[in-house]
Amino acid sequence: MTAGPAPRVVIADDQALVRTGFGMILTADGIDVVAQAADGEEAVAAVERTRPDLVLMDIRMPGLDGLEATRRIVAGTDFEPPRVLILTTYDLDRYVYAALTAGASGFLLKDVTPEHLVAAVRLARTGDALLAPAITRRLVERFVTQDTGTAALHRDLAVLTPREREVLQALGTGLSNTELAHRFALSEATVKTHVARILAKLRLRDRAQAVVVAYETGLVAPGGGGDH
């Protein structure tokens, strides 16, 4: 079974050295960097022009920042929008949380190893763990109670079955598919089916957003393990 074609990537960062360095790492691994952008406006235009699979997006850029650029990109309707992976220097950053609620699929620290960068980019099409659920959980726990007035991912959990609610709750605490399978005495294939149905019913693109929803709806409480 082949891995399929390498993802096509746009790199958006106002620092030329970051763009060049990441571009060299990805290109050396056979990944096609189709465009680079120095600000959010350039990033949005590059996405419309090249229709990539993934955007590596810096948050803090002059003019249109990465947060608003992410909102515009994932709201695109002419074609399936790319996944957006946020680049940040600090993993517990409120702007990263805001980007996740705006539709980003995860984030990477700028001091990421080349191997981790390549692995994350190659996962772009799967919608799976572009970042560790546990890291997402720590981030969400820190900011969800501060942003309840502006949160963008509120969803009605009534569309879920009782088992799907249980799986979402456990996913929200940071469990991987393997851990979920062990928790519920299910096969990993069955767990993946449950997760896929949860994402579809709640209109979510990624597990990262599922973690956010689990907290925003109160299914999981910050600092706790959920409503057992």
How does this model look, in words?
This protein is an alpha/beta fold. Helices cover 46% and strands 11% of the residues. It contains 10 helices and 5 strands, in the order E-H-E-H-E-H-E-H-E-H-H-H-H-H-H. It has helices at residues 16-28, 40-50, 66-74, 94-102, 114-122, 133-143, 162-172, 177-184, 188-201, 207-216, and strands at 8-12, 32-37, 54-58, 83-88, 106-109. Helix 3 (66-74) packs parallel to helix 4 and helix 8 (177-184) crosses helix 9. The radius of gyration is 17 Å and the shape is globular.
State the gist of this model:
The chain is of the alpha/beta class. Helix content is 46%, strand content 11%. Helix 2 (40-50) runs parallel beside helix 3, helix 6 (133-143) runs parallel beside helix 10 (207-216) and helix 8 (177-184) crosses helix 9 (188-201).
Morphology: globular
Quote the average pLDDT: 84
- Backbone CA Rg: 17 Å
Strand content: 5-15%
Count up the helices. Answer: 10
Pairing-aware structural class of the strands and helices? alpha/beta
Spell out the helices and strands N to C: EHEHEHEHEHHHHHH
Task: Report the biggest beta sheet as strand number plus sense, adding barrel if it closes.
Answer: 5 strands, parallel
Major beta sheet, strand line-up: 2-1-3-4-5
- How far apart the termini lie comes to 41 Å
For the secondary structure, the number of strands is 5
List the helices and strands and how they pair.
Elements: E1 8-12, H1 16-28, E2 32-37, H2 40-50, E3 54-58, H3 66-74, E4 83-88, H4 94-102, E5 106-109, H5 114-122, H6 133-143, H7 162-172, H8 177-184, H9 188-201, H10 207-216
Parallel strand pairs: 1-2, 1-3, 3-4, 4-5
Helix pairs in contact: 2-3, 3-4, 6-10, 7-9, 7-10, 8-9
